[in-house]
Fold this sequence. Notes:
Order of helices and strands: HEEEEEEEEEEEEEEEEEEEE
Number of helices: 1
CATH architecture: Sandwich
Structural class: mainly beta
Number of strands: 20
Helix content: under 10%
Number of domains: 1
Largest sheet: 9 strands, antiparallel
Amino acid sequence: MLTFPIGFSAGLRALAWPIALAAGSFAPAVEAAPAITPKATIVLFNGKDLTNFYTWVPASGRYQDPDRVFTVVDCIDGQPAIRSSGQFYGGVVTREEYGNYRLVLEFRWGLATWGARKDRTRDAGLLLHCTGEDGNYAKAFDGAWTKSVEYQIIDGGTGDMLLVGGFDRAGVRSSPEMMVAVEPGKKVWSPTGTLTKFVGGRLDWQYRDPAWKDVLGFRGPRDVEKPSGQWNKIEVICRGGDVVYFLNGVKVNEGLKGSLTQGKILFQSEGAEIFYRGIELHPLP
Length: 285
């Protein structure tokens, strides 16, 4: 059953009530097709349903979604959107693999927070170049994530880059590699820094507050993300192993010569309600 936090008005409930279940009731094909390079704009979210996606929620049905973690809402702020409830960790995942594209979308936070993260920073993200079997973040292949390069969406840290590791069936874990310009001894992207190789881990966006705290609603003095409840525009340029992150028109992070160059795209549910809309892939110039 879909539930809402105390104080969520009847009007907002009506706006946020889903008109369609996630189209994630069956697993993707075992044999993946070759990665798609957009030749024209690909509209991933059609505004009606999740035709181009499947759901992966290991704590609640895996490829089923009985708790409706991912649904489509008919109208929020005048447009349809994908609602991620945040109740369980997992993702809504593209059925196809993609490479060499510009990803454009909008997101905004909802009101609900859950479990251990109910008083923590709102957390979600986009996993790019998802590689290998679903759930390979855990050795038993029941993890919420997949080996990938993440565009982090989190209070105070939207635009951070996470190099998310994963296992193969032989039980060997590996992490993506990336060259990132940083100042000596730091893991913060700097356009004037020295290109440094990283294997796994987090590379913070340029102006993330050094005093960042994991508390609900945290904001740093130089945050580019808009206040909670407003829509933010994300753009990601993926060209081979290079990734460039933009938030509301501002370049916030960049990685070069990454070891992952293509894969599926996963939109996270991670303890906080979030809405995604206008999801498109554009050809690179």
